[in-house]
Amino acid sequence: MQQQKGTISIHTENIFPIIKKFLYSDHEIFLRELVSNAVDATQKIKRLSSLGQAAGELGELKVSVSFDKEAKTITISDRGIGMTAEEIQKYINQIAFSGATEFMEKFKEAKDANEIIGRFGLGFYSAFMVADKVEINTLSYQPGAEPARWICDGSTEYEITEGDRTDRGTEVILHINSESEEFLDKHKLEEILNKYGKFLPVPIEFMTKTESVEDGEDEEGKPRYKTVELPNIINNTTPIWTKTPSDLKDEDYLNFYKELYPFSEEPLFWIHLNVDYPFNLTGVLYFPKVKNEMDLQRNKIKLFSRQVFITDEVKDIVPEFLMLLHGVIDSPDIPLNVSRSFLQADSNVKKINSYITRKVADKLAELFKKDRKAYEEKWNDIGLFVKYGMISEEKFFEKGKEFALLTNTKGEFFTFDEYKEKVAPVQTDKEGTAVYLYSVDAAKQDAFIQSANNRGYDVLVMNSPIDNHFIHNLELKLEKTSLKRVDADVMDKLIEKDESRSHVLSEEESKQVKEIFEKAIGKPEMQVHIEALSPDELPVTVTMEEWMRRMKDMAKMGGGMGFYGNLPDSYKVAINGNHKLVNRILQADGEAAKLEIAKQAYDLALLSQGMLTGADLTAFVNRSVNMIG
């Protein structure tokens, strides 16, 4: 072979400083790029052999990664298709863009290393992030091909000479620069290989590992062991998402989950994704046991492209409400060098997003129909996913109506249709609207729940972190349905009927009772009303209107309701005009006695709402002792 020298056809001296500068923050991806190239070359020779286009035995096919700390080199070698000198010229020297001018214009807009590499075909050149000099030693599979060696020192000049490789494949040797010597470390390299190459489809050998193996028996017949050096294969070449679901058992899915997330509880169930039209996608998504704090950070969904790990930032591919799931998604339609701007714009990504939403909905519907009792037992864990999905995705709401559950204070479960059927006959107001009562804390709101139950009303439990938004969503979607917190008003006002009740107080007595309570309370934000309620209801009830409480709760969660969050609290104090205590107040001897009874009744109402604290609670206790003493 005639020695060749030349200049890489990019027409600028600035290309390598640009690569080093812009890719520096992601410089570990050089190993991903070079190992991926080696895997591609290996898969190509397998394909050509299967088509009868590559003669001879393939032999052992693997990719080897090694390093030499003293020589300051990292070597990636394969037994793939190899290259001729002409192919080196074509694929290595002529970078895949039209010229330096275009590059210099476009790189300015690139957001990250992946975008630069992906847009300009610079995968191989990522080697120069960590190397002063790069060598390629290669021999093509083609009959009669000559070995070739390519050397470049990080300038735009290169040299191609005859190589000395005797077997098919390619070896890339990186001469590591002084700033990147951290990569001349076994643990560091193994960590990167595990991150990006744990499931590559070709065995990746990284140095050797020491293992103890049986070596005959000793004089007493006990097994004897010896220590041996074995090839260290870092990857599982056939992860479960590459297999057919019918070939897998539950145990396989659970073992794979442990492999991905060693410190997590077992998942509730999983969905095996497999589609080849109109895009290619495989994967397994697991429903974990979700705690209410909605921990999205620790165990993320991992995105792969042809079994190469890309990222665990999958926001645009997976619908936001399913970011709570765990598992893997693999799609060759998403390029290895993916960028955020690509994900946001790509039509396949949007189709994948819709497909995953549909598959999750179908799986939940199937579980519900197949074994409702088991589904109900899991509802505490999966309810958060379902509600979040119904709030954020219109199509998911439509499907979710079939398997979303409402739970009441007695621990019973209902679909939307079942609950409407249960409560509509009793809990429809005079306007024809079905009123669903709910509690956020059954223990604290027990008095209100009992009051509702005494009238034959049912009370739902709505205490998850997103129930405020879910309640609002239900009112928008369900026809002629309103949701009211069980302590948002006196029961007669929560579900107003045609029948009207009057209280026994005269107009003068009502005015007198109102003035007594206003004076005893002494707070303008507590608005006193005399109500005509059943004698069995509490004498005093303190409530905040449903809309005001809801807006304030949403403001606390950052729901864009900041204005309401800043409004002063305003409460309604309902005095039951038909309760015997009101008559006792009117008949008490002297203003001080009247005020003391009124204050005690008001404090009891606060106590039932968990609103009596500090000095007011102490005063109430002392007053109670005096009254019964």
Automatic annotation (TrEMBL):
Signal peptide from the UniProt entry: none
All copies of domain Histidine kinase/HSP90-like ATPase, residue ranges: 26-180
Chain sites annotated for binding ATP: E33, N37, D78, M83, S98, G99, T170, R340
One term of GO molecular function: unfolded protein binding
Pfam families in alphabetical order: HATPase_c_3, HSP90
UniProt entry tagged with the keyword Glycoprotein: no
Keyword Aminoacyl-tRNA synthetase: no
Keywords for the protein's UniProt record, in alphabetical order: ATP-binding, Chaperone, Cytoplasm, Nucleotide-binding, Stress response
InterPro entries to which the protein is assigned, alphabetical: HATPase_C_sf, HATPase_dom, Heat_shock_protein_90_CS, HSP90_C, Hsp90_fam, Hsp90_N, Ribosomal_Su5_D2-typ_SF
The organism's place on the tree of life at top rank: Bacteria
Entry similarity comment: Belongs to the heat shock protein 90 family.
Protein name in the entry: Chaperone protein HtpG
Source organism: Cnuella takakiae
Lineage: Bacteria, Pseudomonadati, Bacteroidota, Chitinophagia, Chitinophagales
